[in-house]
From TrEMBL:
The lineage of its organism: Bacteria, Bacillati, Actinomycetota, Actinomycetes, Actinomycetales. Keywords: Lyase, Schiff base. The keyword Metal-binding does not apply. GO terms for biological process: 3,4-dihydroxybenzoate biosynthetic process. It holds the Pfam family DHquinase_I. This is 3-dehydroquinate dehydratase. CDD domains: DHQase_I.
């Protein structure tokens, strides 16, 4: 994506198990340091929630959240939950 000239590099996956989520977060960390364009990664569904809440710790430039209770994608958390998770994670650094 970067060599094709993309402004941001996004990958969204549907994990089969927790190992898939862990692999995505590892790849996120590696890609965000190796590439110059912003990297955006997330896992879908219930298993993927942790990637949406902690992605920034691993180098994901952003996540997607819903302003209410109607997600536009499986596993999309409400914005309040994302803000609280980011606040807690930022205070633990």
């Amino acid at each position: 994506m970067e060599t094709a000239g993309a402004d941001a590099l996004k990958i969204a996956v549907t994990p089969a198990d927790a190992a898939d989520v862990a692999r995505l977060l590892r790849v996120t960390a590696e890609a965000s340091t190796a590439l110059t364009a912003p990297v955006i990664t997330l896992s879908m569904g219930d298993l993927g929630l942790v990637s949406r809440l902690t992605g920034a710790v691993f180098g994901s430039a952003l996540t997607f959240a819903t302003p209410g209770d109607r997600p536009s994608a499986p596993g999309q958390p409400p914005i309040g939950l994302v803000r609280e998770a980011r606040r807690v994670l930022a205070s633990s650094r």
